[in-house]
Specification:
With about 300 residues, the protein is of the alpha/beta class. Strands 8-7-6-9-10-11-12 form a 7-stranded parallel beta sheet. It has 11 helices and 12 strands.
């Protein structure tokens, strides 16, 4: 039996997980992946495997159909986000599939809160200036009393809310599934983009779906107060990147911290690269050793179950 692994965080710790597969007599194939494999690469490769642990690759109907014509029997989407996976196609083709939710709420919330602090105090631009020989002293922003527009109140969002409340911030939460009965007193629920003009920070932690692509665009940024700071630790296409770039260039948006982008890796020609007050990540918010182990073991257990392999 052969398993294809294309998830970069798990690939980075593959030596730890190989024994789990070897003990079952399973070959684990680990190609070199920077962020994702292409659809054509997967169509060529996948038919030779019985199972697939998916990263952020284009797990489309074409890919699943190609796999099903070969040996593919089951798949697991490593991690939380499923916007890149056609679950309906997998089901119609008879391929059992699941993801691994509730794995990284605290880890991603830690990164998001670190971005809030960094944008408020401009710590990254200070670091860069000192390395270049300068000694800057930018006047920062205190967090206490400031308002965060928090888009998404699931595992990541609720964990971030606790961190922001500990910093004495005020929160406006946007999530159609939110239960207002369990919201802390300092968190107000609103319908996007109402009350956006109150926000000092806009933080996106929600999943991507067909209805919220480019939910933060020209119209929404025009509603926001001048000098707002934008943070995205969710999915790049939630933001209309061209609109954000324009707002940054016009200094309507003070700065942005983006762990994700519309195109990944960030293209070399992107104007974002020249924006010194901004902070960029590599879609790496969930990547801690503890979190990777937790999610990888869960993904492996799910895949073994689908393939009828007894747990140890």
């Amino acid at each position: 039996m052969r398993i294809l692994l294309t998830c970069p965080p798990m690939l980075g710790m593959q030596d730890r997980f190989r024994p789990l597969f070897a003990a079952k007599g399973i070959e684990l194939y680990c190609p070199e992946v920077v962020q994702t494999m292409s659809e054509e690469q997967l169509i060529t490769l996948l038919p030779d495997f019985d199972g697939w642990i998916i990263g952020d690759d284009p797990a489309t109907r074409r890919v699943f159909a190609a796999g099903r014509q070969g040996r593919l029997k089951a798949a697991v989407k490593w991690g939380i986000g499923v916007d890149n996976v056609d679950f309906a196609a997998a089901g119609e083709l008879g391929i059992p599939i699941a993801n691994t939710p509730l794995m990284f709420g605290q880890e991603v919330a830690d990164v998001a809160m670190s971005y809030v602090v960094a944008l408020a105090r401009q710590t990254f631009p200070v670091d860069r200036a000192i390395r270049a020989g300068g000694w800057p002293k930018p006047r920062g922003m205190s967090l206490a009393g400031k308002t965060m527009a928090l888009v998404g109140f699931g595992d990541i969002g609720s964990n971030l809310a606790r961190r922001a409340l500990a910093a004495d911030m005020k929160l406006i939460a946007y999530d159609p599934a939110i239960d207002v009965a369990v919201l802390p007193p300092s968190v107000a629920a609103a319908t996007w983009p109402q009350r956006l003009e109150e926000a000092d920070f806009i933080v996106l932690t929600c999943s991507l779906n067909p209805g919220n692509r480019h939910m933060l665009g020209t119209a929404e940024l025009a509603l926001a107060k001048a000098g707002v700071r934008v943070i995205n630790v969710a999915r790049g296409p939630l933001i209309d990147e061209a609109a954000l770039i324009s707002a940054l260039q016009a200094e309507r948006v003070h700065s942005a911290a983006l762990d994700v982008f519309e195109l990944e890796p960030l293209p070399a020609a992107s104007p974002l690269r020249a924006m010194e007050r901004c902070i960029f990540g590599s879609h790496n918010g969930s990547n801690t050793e503890d979190g990777v182990i937790r999610a990888s073991e869960r993904a492996t257990q799910l895949l073994f179950g689908f393939l009828g392999i007894a747990a140890s």
